[in-house]
Amino acid sequence: TALAVTFSKVIVLVIAPGLSKNSEILETASNCVKIVFPYLILIGFVSFFMALLNTKGRFFIPAVSPALLNLSFIVFSLFFSSYLGIYSLAIGAIVGGILQVVLTFYQAKKEGFYIRFTLKLHPKVKKTFQNLLPSTFTFGIDQISYILNTILASLIGAGVISYLYFANRIFQLPVGIVGNGLGNSLISVLSKHFASKDFKNFILDIENGIRFSLIASIPSTFGMLILGYEIIQVLFTRGAFEEKDTFYTYLALVGYAIGLIFSLAGKPLKSAYFSLGDYKTPVLCGFIGVIIGFFSALGLVFFFDMGVFGIALGLTISSFASFILMWKFFSFKIPKKIFL
After folding, report:
1. What is the mean predicted confidence (pLDDT) over 289-298?
2. CA angle at residue 280 from 60 to 128, to 5 degrees?
3. What integer is the mean pLDDT of 109-123?
4. What's residue 139's pLDDT?
5. What is the pLDDT of residue 254?
6. Separation CA 259–CA 171 (nearest Å)
7. CA-to-CA distance for 168 and 103, rounded, in angstroms?
8. Residue among 145, 139, 162 nearest 73 (CA)
9. Quick one: which of 77, 57, 81, 58 has its CA closest to 69?
């Protein structure tokens, strides 16, 4: 975090090189990075408390927790943007992180966990740290894809980064509540099945997880496609955010929404790999998916002139490719009838 604050301008130029053309916007983005980066510390605590709750089979709070971040973004953009401008979103991230810490810490204490800090590491904790790097890559694949898309967006026009950002905030609501909640709950359950060699229920829970993802994605997808424009109008269309901006943000949301089914269905498969102790395969599949999605976005933007919609659709293509690859490489046979 300290390094990020010190080299915030360099980070902005790496992620969004197109901003170098406007020194004022570059400075604003650099300041936002300085404000937001302490969120990494907060989310580290949140992840720890969520893991404790998962071991107790308490999955509701970990599933709801990410929604607090989105809620904070929305509240600060609605009520404080006229006073703080773009900095309202940066501050909203920190407030959202604090709310997540408070909620998960309170619930962990309620479950009877005595939380204290020590430098003595249990052997299993050391093993966890050994698995941390590949698992971090796995969970960071979507963010890597989003960063690549941000780089692309910064090169094609003013406002495109904002369109993608606001659309992604709405898109992440069902992903955070349904996808992450389902994925976190399945890791614990599947690990127990695999440890006890209960392969029948292991497969059954994976089937049910994917089936539930497919069912949950249908109303969420149609909701974003049909009501997305009105949702964006209610949340963001005011002040400097004009009707034109609403339209382009909606185009980005449509591009994201098409791929919701693959984003959600991929969560149970990732959980299955993690429960087997296999972190490499999801990383490989995710990385290949990111490459496919990024080059697809390049083609859609520069050869088919799809603009912001093409960039968002690139993320959908990435999710689709990752899901297909994880499905193909999974060592257990998953009946295709689950799609019926």
Report:
1. 94
2. 60
3. 74
4. 62
5. 97
6. 10
7. 24
8. 162
9. 77
Cα 105–106–111 angle (5° rounding)? 95
**Nearest-angstrom CA–CA distance, 168 and 159:** 14
For the chain, the residue count is 340
Least confident interval from 89-98, 116-125, 196-205, 270-279: 116-125
pLDDT bin (cut points 50, 70, 90) of residue 340 is: very low
- Work out the percent of the chain whose per-residue pLDDT is above 70: 87
Using CA atoms, how far residue 319 sits from 262, 265, 302, 328, in Å, is 6, 10, 21, 14
State the Cα–Cα distance between residues 184 and 286, nearest whole angstrom. Answer: 18
**Phi, psi at 277, each rounded to 5°:** 80, 15
Q: Residue 331 pLDDT > 50, yes or no?
A: yes
Joined tokens for residue 153: 């967006």
Whole-number Å distance between alpha carbons of 148 and 320 = 17
Contact 35, 11 (CB under 8 A): no
Instruction: Indicate the range of 109-113, 155-159, 262-266 predicted with least confidence.
Output: 155-159
Kindly report the number of other CB atoms within 10 A of residue 85's CB atom: 13
Q: Token pair for residue 203?
A: 């497969």
CA-CA-CA-CA torsion for 85, 87, 88, 93, nearest 10 degrees? 160
State the pTM of this model.
0.72
Q: How far apart are the first and last CA of the chain?
A: 47
Percent of the chain surpassing pLDDT 90: 31
State the Cα–Cα distance between residues 9 and 271, nearest whole angstrom. 36
Q: Please give the Cα distance from 30 to 113 (Å, whole number).
A: 39
Residue with tokens 């919609």: 309
Distance CA 270, CA 179 (A): 11
Contacts of 249 (CB under 8 A, 6+ apart): 162, 163, 166, 167, 232, 236
